[in-house]
Design brief:
- The protein is an alpha/beta fold.
- It has 2 domains: 358 residues, no CATH class; 137 residues, no CATH class.
- The chain has 18 helices and 13 strands.
- Helix 1 packs antiparallel against helix 4 and helix 6 packs parallel to helix 8.
- The longest helix has 32 residues.
- The protein is globular.
- It comes from Oceanicola granulosus (strain ATCC BAA-861 / DSM 15982 / KCTC 12143 / HTCC2516).
- This is DUF2029 domain-containing protein.
Amino acid sequence: MAALIALLIAGLGGAALLKGGLHVSQHEGDMLHLADIVLRLAAGDRLHREVTTPLGGLAFAPIVLFVKAGAGLGMAVLWAQLLAAVALAPALWWIGRSRLSPPLAGLLAVLVLVHVLALVHGEAEAALSISMHYNRWAWALTFVAAVAALVPPRAGRGHADGVIVGLAVAGLALIKVTYVLAFAPPVVLALWLTGQRRALAVAVATGLALVAGLTPWLGIGHWTGYVADLAAVAASEARPQPGLPLRDIVTAPLYLGGSLAALAVVVALRRAGVTTGGLLVLLFLPGFVYVTYQNYGNDPQWLPLLGLLVLAYLPQAADGEAASGLSHRAVLGGLAAILFAMAAPSVVNLAISPIRHLTTPAEEYTPVFPRSARHDDLLGVTERLARALAMRPLEIEAPGYPTEPVEPATFAGEVLPECALSGGMVATFAAIARDLEAAGQGGRPLFAADVLMPLWLFGDVGRLPGAAAWHYGGLPGYAAAELVLIPLCPVVPERRAEIVASIAARGTDELTELRRTPLYLLYAKDVTTR
């Protein structure tokens, strides 16, 4: 088991590192979102104070650690993933050794480490992306906590198991609260119902001790700011969900097979005499659906975990036949095979992504930040970075096809054009930053009316204290801004409309137009009105 874990870490982690930089072929917006937060934290800004985000510090801390140590941003991400895998190795070894057969322990190690070390978010598209790395890390912790809670150890243990579960759940809270809301309650119930009550007590104590240990370092303001950021996102209408409606996560053609297989597992376990296991799987299903619903791409990455749990419960299945005439073990084995088959496209994509990264043609990539010698190890596909594309409505007459008139966004009496940036985000941001420098507006804190626009990464544009790296609602950081920039072709026009409406409601008397270009309108904000 230990040798397999070491081999997986060396193989997957080493393949990623050998490229000498991080090559990204999609999700440039998420890439810039990550770069913005990491480099602001590395420069001394504090999470949930100067940096507004609903994500927890553990989603960024390992990357920030390597940036502070002198690494470029691209290599810092790769080293951080390797560090996360090494940190999880002892827990993987212990949980596998104490609960599972060697083949299942090896399968758990593969699933967890593939999620940690992958260079794509999931799904089946052959791409390279660091987007939503925190979701992968959180799934890895969920796998560890779920197996520890649902499958009791072969011998009486408590302290090590409790520490592992406590740290895993605390890690989820420090990465993305969605996972805690979904899985902490069933983990607690699972530990109780499987007789692991000492482990439950140790897990709770471990989590509380971790919070107590971090508070003197982070300060009470970190936790209150975290809660405030979460509350702001929860109250926002800007992102009700990042993908399909909830009902489709259960019943759409892509998901219905998994939903039916999961319910069949519950029934089959209970009929096979594994009543506690069936109940616990049922308790986890709402969390599986909820996290899938909340995550971009709606990738049901719980499918292989459920398949592993079914195989772990096989030895407990009673002799005898199910209503189908097959043995209970055959039914459960068949359901596990179905779950693994449905999970295969995503898992295989995750697993081979470091190899894909190693073999991708370097000549097709360009540094995202060419003006930074240190961070030129973060690269994107040249065509995607450089070619700016816009979507605009065509003014045509179409008799017989009634359409609802669209109310254009306005700001300070100006009708803003209907336009959405559909490609070349990096080149567009770099062009705006250079234009601001040339106009003598460099170095001043700037608020941009879009879902994201980290212009400070591309030139001498002031970082905005309290700004949100990704806009979910409100005007975070606006009070500290000296400049207000209205993009004429934003990434997300709906967010621009919402932001300019919020500014207008606040009042625009303090704003004076400074500059207008084909890309943006720029206003100075009267700082004496703060």
